[in-house]
Amino acid sequence: MLNFIYYPVSAILWFWHKVFGFILGPDNGIAWALSVVFLVFTLRAVLYKPFVKQVRTTRQMQELQPQIKALQKKYSGDRQRQATEMQKLQKEHGFNPIMGCLPVLAQAPVFIGLFHVLRSFNRTGTGMGQLGMSAEDNLNTPNYVFSATDVQSFLDARLFGAPISAAITTPVAQLQAYVTENVPELPSRLNIILVAAPLMIIASIATHFNSRASVARQSEAAAANPQSAIMNKLALYVFPLGVLVGGPFLPIAILLYWVSNNIWTYGQQHLVFRKIDAEEEAKKQEAITRRNDNAPKPGARPDPSKKKGSPAALKTADSADDDGDAPEVSLKKPQPKPSGSSGGSTSKPKQNRPQSNRGNSPKRNKRR
């Protein structure tokens, strides 16, 4: 039913096995382990741009959080209007919530496909999803793009004495499938534990540190959100603990997948966040420089023509266009003509002196 996932995953694993098998030998356990690791790296390289988009989407969502809360409060009684306004806000800012989940959603099918392909190298089990083949039939049955020869090569491969598709809890009856003509010894449970246990611990620690790095980059508003606080605790403690608890039931190759995926994530996060921080810092510096260039010098009056779109700027632009066609206008103030110009003589105008009101003084009237 999920062959559209199983075949691409097995094809990528087959390609890398051919590369490393050519160098180290097709039956080499390290060659098979590196094939799993580079399967992860191939997937993460393909998802690099969606991951960058996810980071930008997360930051944009944090910036829009106050506006989102305002819309939720404003239209709390009208869910349909609230959804419409939210879509309008997202469209205005080019915000796509799906991009924030795409990398995680894309990795899940690969994890499921790898788990199924690895388990299909050994189909002698009788549990859920197992075919219950005999060891001989299993050895001679292809596994998706892997031929029967590749299946035998995989069963013969050992990583420090342990088959990479075996788990700590694998029953002895299934371990019998790893006994072939080239490797007649039954895999030791101790060898499987010695290989799987360190990978479980490393995967758990790597998961914790990746979660811590993500939580540290959250804004204060996002971290204060109750739902975000619960998810942060799950990511920091429950998920890493789940790797330790579920590790004994996972094949060694799946643990390799988990470790390599976390290592890639840790390095990619630091690289992408450093790049985005540098871009945002450059934008801030550019805005500051532009504001300083437009600001008046100390002691100088601001020039309204520098304000883009202001009436003064538009008036200055229009006057500059019309300067070539406008006639010259004299700015000298006209002088008044002198009075009494006969004979060329000039007479001083009489000054209106204020009349004295001494005669009308109240004291003088009283004496009279």
How would you describe the overall organization of this protein?
With 368 residues, the chain is an all-alpha fold. 63% of the residues lie in helices and 0% in strands. The protein has helices spanning 3-24, 29-46, 48-63, 65-74, 79-92, 102-119, 135-139, 148-156, 172-175, 189-216, 220-224, 226-246, 252-294, 311-322, 362-367. Helix 10 runs antiparallel to helix 12 (226-246). The longest helix has 43 residues, at 252-294. Mean pLDDT is 78; it is low at 326-331, 339-349 and 362-366.
Query: Quick check: average pLDDT?
Result: 78
Which structural class fits the helix and strand makeup?
Answer: mainly alpha
- Runs with pLDDT <50, length 5+? 326-331, 339-349, 362-366
- State which percent range the strand residues make up: under 5%
Report the major sheet: none
Q: What is the overall shape?
A: elongated
Per DSSP E runs of 2 or more residues, the count of β-strands stands at 0
N-to-C CA distance? 133 Å
Order of helices and strands: HHHHHHHHHHHHHHH
Radius of gyration: 41 Å
Q: Helix fraction?
A: 55-70%
Tally of helical segments: 15
